[in-house]
Specification:
The chain is about 45% helix and about 10% strand. The protein contains 17 helices and 12 strands. Strand 1 and strand 2 form a beta hairpin. The chain is globular, with a radius of gyration of 25 Å.
């Protein structure tokens, strides 16, 4: 597993300011942290996050995300285009990430509060007064400063770590805190690079059993972020990279012959090659034009590597599922997008999905138990229901009639982000990250020079000793 390359997208010059901000760059500290792991440590992370860590090597496309938001139907959690609907599905994201295997038999991660004392105890840290810690978050560099570099153990062992923490135990915590940092930065991002301390509970839950899954939580937060940004929120608090990859893959035409190389199951790692062949537009306006003109016959409905012959399409109790996201509950109705699952698209049942959109306000036992009940009441569409031409998809006449009779959701008016102070906050984070990167680069060069100096001094001493012997 190689070290990912950080990247960000420059905005087209003639574009207006963005309507909202996204996570558009992977911090170098996170990449360096991952690269510093031994193979066995990376394998430990892979056991729980699978191919998610490859997101660090994908170039974010904020123009596409901004254009997609305008086509989002927040009442039904689907994108509504010219003559069809689409939405990310659990099976598709599971295929990307490797987290979708035996999904129906796994228990979704649930929302949990984490107090400051529990947070510090879990990480073997002393209690040091910090205002933001009491508010339930830490800066993105908090974990890296204490666990990111193998050299920092000695620096903090007598000041912030509890006395009984051994080096081996600290190395175990490095793996644990990397997963927290990665999820907080790349999967559940927040304005200003904040990482919520309740991610400690999420990672602990994943590590406690292989039957636990984080995939519904990821998809639920993507749905919430799309709705909130359409309502005027100025930061996309969801995994924008997974969202852009999901859509671009539906523009990619399948190869006749699949290249089964050593890394062929890593669909995130090889995504840039497929995206490069799609001739994608540049700029928000160009993307809006494309999205507004795309008809159903130009969409690749079912990925050629679609992983599931058996798909979850509804529950015994409802014609939908309730996803427990990181910040709230969101409804998910695969029956509206069965073409993406390789099945015939029929007229879906109508349900008021807004009643299942709940914000997280702490631990919510009644809502959680109801969501779990619906999840474990899953009903499946098996292989015998898969259509012959999965790429082009099949659709019933009743669905087409129903679709064209639906009211078109109101388009959000164009605007830039609401407050200049938001740009200021983001710039402060960028400046802090840049300073850190520069300092690390200089320190790396200094360390290299010091090593070279030591080698030269040793060689001089050896030569001097040889000279003294020959002289004697």
């Amino acid at each position: 597993m190689s070290s990912p390359q950080r990247s960000s997208q420059k905005r087209v010059r003639d574009e207006t300011p963005p309507m909202f901000l996204i996570r558009d760059k992977t911090p170098s500290s996170l990449c360096n942290w991952w690269a510093s792991f031994a193979t066995w440590e990376q394998n430990r992370v892979f056991k729980h996050l699978k191919f998610l860590t490859n997101l660090m090597g994908i170039k974010p496309n904020r123009d596409l995300i901004e254009a997609l938001v305008g086509f989002w139907d927040p009442a039904n959690n689907v994108f509504r285009f010219k003559d069809y609907e689409m939405t990310p599905t659990l099976e598709e994201l599971g295929g990307f990430t490797g987290l979708g295997r035996d999904l129906c038999g796994k228990r979704p991660a649930a929302l949990r509060k984490v107090g400051v004392n529990n947070f510090l105890k879990k990480l073997c840290l002393r209690r040091i007064p910090m205002v933001w810690l009491n508010e339930g978050w830490v800066p993105s560099e908090y974990f890296y400063d204490r666990f990111g570099d193998e050299k920092v153990f000695e620096n903090f062992s007598g000041t912030e770590f509890v006395n009984q923490l051994s080096y081996d135990a600290w190395r175990e915590l490095r793996i644990f805190t990397f997963m927290i940092s990665f999820l907080g930065i790349m999967v559940f991002p927040e304005r200003g690079g904040r990482i919520r301390i309740r991610l400690v509970a999420v990672v602990s839950y994943l590590q406690s059993s292989e039957d636990h899954t984080i995939l519904p939580m990821i998809l639920g937060d993507i749905f919430r972020a799309l709705t909130r940004c359409q309502e005027g929120e100025d930061y996309f608090e969801g995994c924008n990279i997974l969202l852009q990859m999901w859509f671009i893959e539906h523009l990619y035409h399948h190869p006749i012959v699949v290249n089964f190389n050593d890394d062929w199951l890593n669909y995130i790692g090889c995504h840039p090659d497929r995206a490069a062949s799609c001739n994608l537009p540049e700029g928000v306006r160009a993307w809006r034009t494309l999205l507004g003109s795309l008809s159903a016959n130009r969409i690749t409905w079912n990925y050629y590597w679609f992983p599931s012959a058996r798909v979850m399409h509804m529950s015994t109790y409802r014609p939908l599922f309730i996803l427990m996201g990181f910040r709230g509950f969101q409804p998910y109705a695969p029956l509206r997008v069965m073409r993406q699952l390789g099945r015939e698209q029929k007229r879906p049942p109508i349900e008021d999905m807004c009643t299942f959109m709940w914000e997280f306000k702490g631990e919510e036992p009644p809502w959680e138990s109801y969501a779990q009940k619906i999840w474990f009441g899953s009903r499946f569409s098996d292989l015998d229901e898969m259509v012959v031409d999965r790429e082009r998809g099949e659709v019933s006449l009743a669905y087409l009639e129903w679709f064209h009779n639906q009211a078109i959701p109101e388009q959000r008016t164009e605007r830039s982000i609401r407050h200049a102070v938001d740009w200021e906050r983001e710039n402060e984070v960028r400046v802090r990250e840049t300073r850190r990167e520069v300092a690390q680069e200089f320190q790396s060069r200094i360390d290299t020079l010091q090593e070279d100096k030591g080698i030269l001094e040793t060689a001089i001493d050896v030569q001097q000793a040889d000279f003294e012997r020959e002289k004697a």
